[in-house]
């Protein structure tokens, strides 16, 4: 059965009409036309390559619904927000929504009210979704972060396997899978698991000629970091692996006169938003962050990314380093290494796989905290408080975090970082009942009147509300507003979801007796082995001293290039320099700006001092 509309708008017209762009980036148009042809397509584009347009443009050209599967709530909310600002109807179904809200959103999608429906992968197996799936007017299924479906990938998510079931129900709808970090092995696995009718891979070049990759080895990492920031002007990201270290380094930078802030998942959502906004608008130069920072950021003029220690794999390194220089201007990715880094990484890897006994303790404590009965909780979301769990289990917070991750890797639950989830209301009772309560009910009537006067569309879809604003208008206490909204929720007059910014876990299987909980030992051993192999590749990359960094990194992702980059630390060491007119023994390499040459002179001077 054909799923194509009778007419398809020209993709260049869509690009200009919606985004105001005159042309596509490299490989975007090929990917878009492949999707429009109905072919299953795997798109491999580097970080900053414009993956979202590759599914947004063809979906709008078709005039049919695009189902977007993404594991990141923050990224989904960000993309939906941007589409709405462009006048494109879009909705995200996420773990913090009530069953009523999800049901309402799916029905609206089935009625053709949205151009894009974003869902987290665990929702694909829900009864609400599967009941609506045959009715959804789908033209395209887009799988973002598609490496998550591969057990060979660095961020495997068992919930992604639900996509194969969606394909069985809607086999006529083409799939567009997108990722920025897939080795050839992972790419093959993605296509197998998504049941591609024919294998089709469109690969954008992973080469970043504007990005100089540099590994600097030595004892004094902080001193090196300060010298880099002195020499390279512009916005910077400094990556750490631990939250506590981000606070320490941000404080040290401020002491040296740099505007800097720490960013990690332990901060509340308002603080994270404030820091990211200040950094985006240029009032904050440096963000010192864990890997919680960066996914979905929209800032093209990052001039330098500094890793204060090696990431656990080359996939993470490439994604994080690639956040520099998206505007095509000269930019730098420095990886600062020192004695003991390799041992620390191996210790961290070993600690990432806790004992079954510790996993059971955390699972039991989590169930007890939320009063989840055995056999219940399927697809319900619950707040995650690692410190409270650590106190209950008497385990270190890091062990608790790894135990929850082990449960996620086993497909028991899905973890989500805290994102801003404002309070929202949807009226679900019929209008006659609500009118009667407004007129006759002294306790709830004024509140319903205030809701209807202040907010529109309450009967159609959930509307964001502000309890403080309502309280001021009613001359009530905020607690009274919240209590009565909760009462009306219990009476099924409305659906009320109170604000919640905490990290959450969604159960993907009903709760079981913790003492009978068994993790698949073979699967866990295999994942540990693969994580070890990726770590070995990362350490080999760091230790290598003969091959161009760019060439080596790109080959890891299955691409061969004809020439060395000429700008990395290995290429610079191999180059022979003649004294220039200024008397320096370091000539400016062709194609580099004076600023870039200045940085490289500094690095070479430093190496001479070490030798």
Sequence stretches where pLDDT stays below 50 over 5 or more residues: 1-6, 577-592, 600-611
Q: Roughly how many Å apart are the termini?
A: 70 Å
Supply the CATH class of the largest domain: Alpha Beta
CATH H level, superfamily name of the largest domain: P-loop containing nucleotide triphosphate hydrolases
Supply the CATH architecture of the largest domain: 3-Layer(aba) Sandwich
Shape: globular
Going across the biggest sheet, name each strand in turn.
3-4-2-5-6-1-7
Describe this entry's structure for a reader:
The protein is an alpha/beta fold. The protein folds into five domains: 11-203, P-loop containing nucleotide triphosphate hydrolases (Rossmann fold, 3-Layer(aba) Sandwich), CATH 3.40.50; 208-339, 3-Layer(aba) Sandwich (Rossmann fold), CATH 3.40.50; 346-420 and 502-528, Arc Repressor Mutant, subunit A, CATH 1.10.10; 424-497; 575-611, no CATH class. α2 (28-36) packs parallel to α3. The longest helix has 23 residues, at 521-543. The N and C termini lie far apart (70 Å). The relative contact order is 0.10. Mean pLDDT is 88; it is low at 1-6, 577-592 and 600-611.
């Amino acid at each position: 059965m054909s799923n194509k509309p009778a007419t398809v708008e020209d993709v260049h017209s869509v690009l200009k009409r919606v985004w105001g762009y005159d042309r596509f980036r490299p490989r975007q148009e090929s990917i878009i036309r492949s999707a429009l042809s109905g072919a299953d397509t795997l798109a491999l584009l580097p970080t900053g390559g414009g993956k979202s347009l590759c599914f947004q443009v063809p979906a709008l050209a078709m005039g049919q619904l695009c189902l977007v599967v993404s594991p990141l709530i923050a990224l989904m909310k960000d993309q939906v927000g941007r589409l709405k600002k462009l006048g494109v109807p879009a909705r995200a179904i996420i773990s913090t929504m009530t069953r009523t809200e999800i049901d309402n959103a799916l029905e609206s999608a089935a009625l053709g009210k949205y151009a894009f429906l974003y869902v987290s992968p665990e929702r694909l197996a829900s009864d609400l979704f599967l009941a609506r799936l045959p009715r959804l007017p789908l033209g395209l299924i887009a799988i973002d972060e598609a490496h998550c479906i591969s057990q060979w990938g660095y961020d495997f998510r068992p919930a992604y396997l639900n996509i194969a079931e969606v394909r069985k129900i809607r086999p006529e709808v083409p799939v567009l899978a997108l990722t920025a970090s897939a080795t050839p092995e992972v790419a093959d696995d993605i296509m197998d698991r998504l049941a591609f009718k024919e294998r089709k891979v469109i690969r954008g070049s992973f080469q970043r000629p504007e990005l100089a990759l540099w590994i600097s080895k030595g004892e004094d990492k902080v001193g090196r970091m300060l010298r880099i920031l002195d020499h390279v002007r512009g916005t910077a990201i400094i990556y750490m692996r631990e939250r506590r270290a981000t606070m320490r380094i941000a404080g040290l930078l401020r002491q040296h006169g740099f505007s800097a802030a720490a960013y990690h998942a332990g901060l509340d959502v308002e603080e994270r938003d404030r820091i990211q906004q200040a950094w985006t608008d240029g009032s904050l130069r440096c963000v010192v962050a864990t890997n919680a920072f960066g996914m979905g950021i929209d800032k093209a003029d990052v001039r330098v990314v500094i890793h204060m220690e090696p990431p656990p794999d080359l996939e993470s390194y490439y994604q994080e380093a690639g956040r520099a220089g998206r505007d095509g201007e000269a930019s730098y990715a420095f990886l600062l290494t020192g004695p003991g880094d390799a041992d620390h990484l191996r210790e961290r890897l070993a600690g990432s796989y806790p004992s079954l006994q510790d996993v059971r303790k955390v699972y039991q404590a989590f169930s007890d905290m939320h009063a989840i009965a055995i056999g219940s909780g399927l697809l319900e979301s619950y707040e995650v408080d690692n410190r409270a769990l650590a106190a209950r289990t008497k385990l270190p917070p890091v062990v608790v975090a790894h135990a929850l991750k082990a449960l996620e890797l086993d497909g028991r639950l899905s973890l989500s970082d805290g994102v801003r989830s404002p309070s929202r209301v949807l009226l679900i009772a019929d209008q006659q009942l609500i009118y009667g309560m407004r007129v006759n009910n002294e306790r709830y009537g004024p509140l319903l009147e205030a809701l209807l006067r202040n907010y529109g569309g309450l009967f159609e879809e959930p509307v964001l509300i502000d309890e403080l604003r309502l309280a001021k208008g009613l001359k009530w206490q905020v607690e009274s507003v919240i209590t009565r909204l909760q009462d009306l929720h219990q009476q099924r007059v409305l659906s009320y979801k109170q604000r919640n910014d905490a990290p959450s876990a969604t159960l993907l299987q009903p709760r079981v007796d913790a003492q009978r909980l068994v993790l698949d030992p073979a699967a866990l051993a295999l994942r540990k082995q693969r994580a070890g192999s990726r770590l070995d590749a990362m350490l080999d990359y760091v230790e290598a001293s003969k091959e161009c960094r760019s060439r080596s990194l790109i080959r890891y992702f299955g691409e061969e290039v004809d020439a060395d980059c000429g700008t990395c630390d290995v290429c610079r060491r191999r180059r022979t320099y003649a004294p220039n007119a200024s008397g320096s023994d370091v000539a400016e390499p062709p194609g580099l700006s004076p600023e870039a040459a200045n940085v490289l002179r500094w690095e070479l001077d430093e190496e001479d001092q070490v030798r």
